[in-house]
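Quiz preparation item.
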């Protein structure tokens, strides 16, 4: 029996090797599969389509909301506008009621409506062996030719900006998954704020990505998800074949995230990070974008610089340069291994 893989993303080196071995080039494919790219761009006559797919497997409750938003984020990070959504809904045998199914449909329908997306179909079934629902979403959007912002387009000496803070999704998941335990240790107001991170500050980056892309010339955008901010930054650098220097003190970490990460001994840099947006752009464009976001009350900061490839992935902490931490699996997995009562 061969070696098995841990929970989380497939090993990046193996995935890159498989893509190289089995991917077939096509002139219609403008942005092909690559480590760090979460969506593909296809030229269809005079139009450019953006396509992505993502499963929701960790979320407890609100699985429909997660599925729509996470897939919409991938489209927005590519510079596109999400238009159409499909979902394959796999529901656990012996645990799914009529009310559960209607709640899922209502949830997906409402989020799509709120974001101006049309839910156009998919698949649903009761599946044996599942402990919780799994929703595999597929989002299709459109993008203008001059507005495509793939991770692979980051340039040397670009500023690397972070929109909002980090560990937004991770904070909400911890509060929801460990609610019973946390109720005995923290106030109800704190716990409700943490659970509500799904909505405020929110795991959607659609508004922020569209605002940025319509305001300045952006080279690359990326929404860090599984593996946290650190993994997301590495994905940008790897996709564009560059190095990166990160300024740790400039990274916004919400108080609720800090507290919950300390409680479960997690590193927020490696905690699932949907709700954050990375933007790589020419330093001349940064002041204009920062001023715009600050005027609208949206947190934004320069957290790094794109470097030559041989620089590697590094982080400046208290004036000292060290390696950017690498996470083989997302820090969120630790909360499922730790026993709490």
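Solution:
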């Amino acid at each position: 029996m061969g070696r098995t893989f841990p929970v989380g993303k497939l090993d990046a080196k193996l995935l890159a090797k498989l893509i190289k071995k089995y991917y077939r080039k096509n002139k219609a494919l403008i942005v092909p599969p690559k480590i760090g790219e979460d969506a593909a761009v296809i030229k269809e006559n005079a139009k450019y389509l953006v396509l992505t797919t993502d499963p929701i497997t960790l979320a407890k409750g609100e699985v429909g909301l997660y599925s729509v938003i996470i897939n919409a984020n991938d489209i927005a990070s590519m510079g596109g506008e999400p238009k159409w959504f499909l979902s394959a809904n796999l529901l656990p045998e012996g645990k799914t009621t009529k009310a559960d199914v209607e709640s899922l449909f209502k949830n997906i329908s409402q989020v799509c409506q709120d974001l101006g997306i049309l839910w156009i179909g998919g698949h649903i079934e009761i599946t044996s062996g599942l402990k919780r629902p799994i929703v595999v979403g597929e989002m299709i959007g459109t993008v203008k030719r001059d507005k495509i912002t793939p991770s692979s387009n980051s340039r040397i000496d670009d500023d690397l900006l972070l929109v909002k803070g980090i560990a937004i999704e991770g904070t909400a998941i911890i509060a929801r998954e460990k609610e019973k335990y946390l109720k005995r240790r923290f106030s109800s107001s704190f716990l409700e704020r943490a659970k509500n991170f799904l909505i405020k500050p929110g795991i959607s980056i659609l508004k922020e990505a569209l605002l940025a892309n319509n305001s300045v010339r952006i080279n690359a955008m990326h929404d860090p998800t599984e593996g946290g901010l650190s993994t997301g930054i590495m994905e940008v650098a790897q996709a564009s074949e560059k190095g990166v220097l990160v300024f740790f003190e400039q990274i916004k970490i919400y108080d609720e995230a800090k507290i919950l990460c300390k409680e479960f001994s997690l590193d927020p840099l490696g905690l699932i990070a949907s709700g954050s947006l990375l933007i790589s752009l020419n330093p001349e464009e940064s002041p204009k974008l920062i001023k715009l976001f600050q005027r609208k009350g949206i947190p934004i900061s320069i957290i790094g610089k794109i470097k030559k490839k041989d620089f590697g992935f590094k982080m400046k902490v208290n004036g000292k340069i060290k390696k950017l931490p690498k996470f083989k699996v997302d820090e969120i997995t630790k909360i499922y291994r730790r026993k709490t009562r």
